[in-house]
Amino acid sequence: xxxxxxxxxxxxxxxxxxxxxxxxxxxxxxxxxxxxxxxxxxxxxxxxxxxxxxxxxxxxxxxxxxxxxxxxxxxxxxxxxxxxxxxxxxxxxxxxxxxxxxxxxxxxxxxxxxxxxxxxxxxxxxxxxxxxxxxxxxxxxxxxxxxxxxxxxxxxxxxxxxxxxxxxxxxxxxxxxxxxxxxxxxxxxxxxxxxxxxxxxxxxxxxxxxxxxxxxxxxxxxxxxxxxxxxxxxxxxxxxxxxxxxxxxxxxxxxxxxxxxxxxxxxxxxxxxxxxxxxxxxxxxxxxxxxxxxxxxxxxxxxxxxxxxxxxxxxxxxxxxxxxxxxxxxxxxxxxxxxxxxxxxxxxxxxxxxxxxxxxxxxxxxxxxxxxxxxxxxxxxxxxxxxxxxxxxxxxxxxxxxxxxxxxxxxxxxxxxxxxxxxxxxxxxxxxxxxxxxxxxxxxxxxxxxxxxxxxxxxxxxxxxxxxxxxxxxxxxxxxxxxxxxxxxxxxxxxxxxxxxxxxxxxxxxxxxxxxxxxxxxxxxxxxxxxxxxxxxxxxxxxxxxxxxxxxxxxxxxxxxxxxxxxxxxxxxxxxxxxxxxxxxxxxxxxxxxxxxxxxxxxxxxxxxxxxxxxxxxxxxxx
Length: 623
Hints:
Blueprint: H1 14-23, H2 28-40, H3 44-57, H4 62-75, H5 78-90, H6 96-108, H7 112-125, H8 130-142, H9 146-158, H10 163-175, H11 179-192, H12 197-209, H13 213-225, H14 232-244, H15 248-253, H16 265-277, H17 281-292, H18 300-316, H19 320-328, H20 343-350, H21 354-365, H22 369-385, H23 389-398, H24 407-419, H25 424-431, H26 441-451, H27 455-468, H28 473-485, H29 489-502, H30 507-519, H31 524-537, H32 542-555, H33 558-564, H34 566-571, H35 576-588, H36 592-605, H37 609-622
Helix pairs in contact: 2-3, 3-4, 4-5, 4-6, 5-6, 6-7, 6-8, 7-8, 8-9, 10-11, 11-12, 12-13, 12-14, 13-14, 16-17, 17-18, 18-19, 19-20, 21-22, 22-23, 22-24, 23-24, 24-25, 26-27, 28-29, 29-30, 30-31, 30-32, 31-32, 32-33, 32-35, 33-35, 35-36, 35-37, 36-37
């Protein structure tokens, strides 16, 4: 029945009621509408009078009966409600609301026996009686009969497929802390109505409180997709569930729902940590800066950790000065120690060794001899690197080698000693003290002198290294590269030839030697054999095929050269050297357009200066 607000009187006078009754004596809808107006005004006594008239006119109107029961309930007039409801029942009108309201009124006047009688009678009269079982459950609870109460509640749940009614039952299971039945009932609701958002919210809350976060996420994400149903509590539960399951990217996706300016300190920390773990370092720094606003109230360890993570974030963004500044604010050295592998890099970038001094003071005050040895070695190395040789010598002299238990400090001291003028032979003896000598001392010294462009000393120690470790493939490649970079062709070839003697089946060595001979236009037939063998050993290596094609070209075998380049053509290579080679091979095979195309590509790829220059010259000649 539609509610119509025909009149909104300030005062409904008894005379007016009499007039209404006289004029509209046969129209219950009119009185029902006036009663609705009175209810809106909070005038329940007046509404009851109007509904009583409407009931007399039409005692079969379900709307009038239910509305009057509600009004009497609000008036808390149990005796009048009982009289009215009993009268309704005597007229043979069967409504579950009548039985329920009547039973509640009997309970209110302490007549539980009568309340149960009424409800039992209702069970006989009403087919859909789930609501009556729910009321019997409440009666049993009042009587403190828990077993009977649960029987009635289970019966109410099994006898209905109404999602709204099941939701009421779920609330009762929640009050009883019956988690098994609560979960089952909420699942039933969603099976009946997959869009019942309140059930999703309750299930999400249930799983969240039981620390079943993945299940909570599944339900709470539904609410996120239906924003009209989402609540602040549900959003917070979803945020925490993502965080507790370490789904840090998902946490950050919720940033639009948690504006930084409205976050509490816990949320700021969650977003900061999530951004850090997700390697979103600019976002981490933004949240971290916001956390600093609360540093006065922050626990000391939390503040130290914040400085630490901000420093690491700045390092990842190559902001070394800022990283050094954050590390410098850490007063608890325990937060610096895990980054002892990073701090030397910061020192080398900033030239500020103060962090080493801070850690050295900590090591010596705690008698951490091994740590102290490492830090003194680091100071010696960095002062040598900064050409502060007197300071470097100072820390070299303070190092107790007995406490240097691994390679790292010994290598640092070796570098510092060489920089400060100690003889290579003396440093060689020091390097021999390393516990792990996977790299020989001679090779280490060769690499040191090569890095300092001392060709003569580098050659001397590389030669020693090859004598001492003649079966080390990596060493041959390392030494050959040194000779290549310094245009010492004869030494490069000699090193590669010696390597091939020990490793005749190594495709990389064969290719390097064959290509070097080809590039210098010497021993081309020998180079051909070396490269043909290399191709057999590594048939999928396009760079070896390029070398073979190039030696064929140099020998004038142009068709064979083009055939050798087949794999490279199919691979659509993007290497300037290969494109240059292929361009010349196309040219010699009479394919001028393809030659121009590949020479131009060599120029466009621009990843080898020498090849690009030669490609330009060849292209100019074709024009």
